[in-house]
User: What shape does this take?
Amino acid sequence: MRRMRRAKIVATLGPASHEEKMIEELAKAGADVFRINMSHASHEVLRTTVERIRNVEKRLNHPLGVLVDLQGPKLRVWKFADGAVELLAGQKFTLDSNETPGTAERVFLPHPEIIESVSVGDRLLIDDGKLSLKATKVGNGAIETEVVYGGKLSDKKGVSLPDTLLPTGALTEKDHADLLAGLAADADWIALSFVQRPEDIIDVRKIVQGRAGVMAKIEKPQAIERLEEIIKLSDAIMVARGDLGVELPLEQVPGLQKRMIRMARRYGKPVVVATQMLESMITAPVPTRAEVSDVSIAVFEGADAMMLSAESASGMYPVEAVATMNKVAIAVEGDLNYRNIIRAAHTEPEATAADAISAATRQVAETLDLAAIVTYTASGSTGIRAARERPSKPIIVLSPNMRTIRRMSVVWGVHCVQTEDAVNLEDMVDRACVISYQEGFARPGDRIAITAGIPLGTPGATNMLRIAFVRQDGAGSS
Assistant: This one.
């Protein structure tokens, strides 16, 4: 199953799409990675869903990635005596440590860490930013606020703190249990919510120990302040525009998206753009023009993947949403301006042999009009380096490791094939040529570029570039 586009598609599974037949339809429509949202999934649902994805993968003979998305801390106000109150702009309202049901003047906030961390002048945004409060006095187990934007406030609405650095880590007890369950189910990626500081990534990496890729969700202003450090420590990042748009002015989000994509590409880290990409398709079979434009921008910017949330998890048209995203990506990548825009965002390679080889391979492949770039990789790093260059030629990643191949399903432009390690250079050339021919990328008479690490099978040691000729029998000669 060969994709006709480079950008990848992440589809969230849920009530509308958790059955095996529907997962298969989504994969055929274009989904490369399936996201399991642990805010709504039990460990049993997680195990069952992963099993279904692996069954589909086997049937289609096409690698599919599994992304387990941890819930992160959920900060909420508690309950009201009458279920809801109406707050008016300018009135005083207190969030305190008193468990008595709330009134129009106060409510219980079951998070002492917030009460201890908020400073006078900090904003508290409630119910996805629909209500805005400003702290006027803090102390004695309470935060006194003035209502800036009022409205109806009901039980257990979420609280966001754009101005406050909380002392708690990103990993709650529930997240820790979900993380272990995800690793036990052989998830390929773990997405960490509520990242504020680089230490949050380090804590998770200690637990994961290389068994899955760690993806940092950038959704807090505090993470933006230390973005470079967080990207360096992560295996990938997600531009989580929903929460980012609540805690930061909406008009800043498009610029931040562009900045994050470029920084991630500079460091050779895959980047996923998420939230509300085809939101109207939750209830409609076609998207709005604005949504098509939004998806197009992510593709033009060179994002590795775009993500569907409720569109595929609980919407009425999950297959149509994936198919639409697939069509938009194909159209954008075929646009006359696409290659120039991608090339304009190109960054210089790192001063390493592996990066220099990857940069040279792209130039050689394009100058000599080669049919494909074939990379041998054990860990996936060679394939990611090849993708970082955003070549106009197809990238075929060969690896003996199925875990590596599945993890690469989120990476831009790579077509992955599981194959045994080559035993020598001649076998390496033959294998690359045969697979390029079998997978439909090269015909007899074409030439391909091959990169690998010598000695063969050495992780992260790309130091060889070979040009090979595909013979009539599909084998190769160099």
